[in-house]
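Predict the 3D structure for this chain.
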Amino acid sequence: MPAAKGGVTWHKKAEKWRAQVRHKGEVHHLGLHETREAAEAAVAEFRALHPGKRTRKLDSVRRNHVRCFDERTLLAERAPIVDVMESGVKKLIRLSTASGKQLRCSRDHAILTPDGWRKAGELAVGDAVMVGGTAARPSEALVPPSLRRGIGVWTAMQRNRLIDELDVCYLCSRTFPREALQLDHVVPVALDLGKALDEKNLQPACEDCHAAKSADEQALAKRGGKVALAKADLVTAIADDGEEMTYDLAVEGPWHNFLANGIVVHNSYNEESGRYRELQPVFYLPAEERKLVQQGRPGRYEFVEGTPEQYGTATGAMEAAYREAYARYQEMLAAGVAREVARAVLPVGLFSSMYATCNARSLMHFLSLRTKRENSAVPSFPQREIEMVAEQMEQHWAGLMPLTHAAFEKHGRVAP
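Done. Predicted structure below.
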C-alpha cells in the first residue's frame, strides 16, 4: 500500500521507502530506505528524540477505565478507554437535571434516554435522560432478563409439537392431558445456557412438579445488596454555555457509552473525520472472488466473474492511484495545508472507521436493503462492498438475538 504509519511513503522512481516527519511546522527528510520497516524505524527514532504535543492516542488515558452501561439491562460495567480525539471548536450547551447533575457538551453529542439515543440539541426541558444510580438488587438469575424471556417464548412455541395430547410427567411419572403439562428444561438454563434451545433438554412436567422444580432452581439466584444501573432523570434546564475545543472519547465495546458527570453519553467518536485528524493509508483492494464485470441493461444487470487479466488491471490501477493520491495528501500536509482541504485528493477507496448504534428493527431494515437472499420478500441488489459489511453485522446480531433473527428469516427478511 502507499504508505505506513508515521510519514513513510513509497518513492516510485527510486523504488525505495522514503521517511519524513513534520515537526514544529518543518518537514524533516530522513532519507530513503530499502524496506518499509527501516523507514518506520527512522521515523520512530526521530519522534522519540523530538516528542511533539500533537498526539492521537494518549497513553496516559488509554490505560484508564470508565463506567459504561449494558444497553439491554442498564446494569453498570467498566470499559477501557481506547482513544481521545480532538474534534474541533464547537458551541456548547449546559444540561441540568432534577437530581442536580450537569453536563456541558456540544449540541450533536448523543445522550442516552429511555427511548434510545438522542442528540443533546434535540432535548427540551421535561425530557428524560439516563443517569447513573443504584437500586436494590433483585433476584438476579444467571441469565439476562431479555434472553430469559426469549427462551420462554421459544419454549412455549414447542409445546404443542413436543407434548402429546396425553403425556407423562417426567418427574412424577403420572399421565396428564396436554393442557395440564408444561415443557421443562431438564438441565436448568442457569446451569447450562447451551442447552436452552436444545429440544432434547425439554420434557413434559405437570404443573405441581414444574412449580416445585422452579422454586428449587431459585437457589441459583443471587439476592441482596445494591446494584449500579442507569435510571431516568428529568432535564430541568438547558442553556448556551460558550464555545471551546471539544474532544471525542472512544471506549471499547460492546457498549460504546460512558458516564460523564453522572449522565450516560455516547462515546461520540462516530466516524473518523478528515477535518481534525490525519487519515491513515488503509485502502480497499477487491478480493479475487469479487465479481468485476457488469452485464445487462440498467435496472436488470448482473455481475459475473472477471478474468485474471481484468483483476490484475483493476488492482494495479487502484494501487497506483492510491499511492499517488496519498503522496499528494502528505505533500499538502507537509506544506501546512489544512487537513480538511488536503483530504479532497483522497479516493473513495480509503477505509474509514466509525461507531453507530441502532435498534433491532432499524438493523433489520438495513439488512433487508443491503443483503441479497433468495428468501427475501423484497428483492435487493446491493453493491458487494456494503453487502460484506452487512453480512458481518448480521452474523454478530444473530448471535446476540437468535430468536429475533430466526423470525426475521422466517418472515422474508422484512422488518416488523
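Residues 1-6, 53-57 have pLDDT under 50 and may be disordered.
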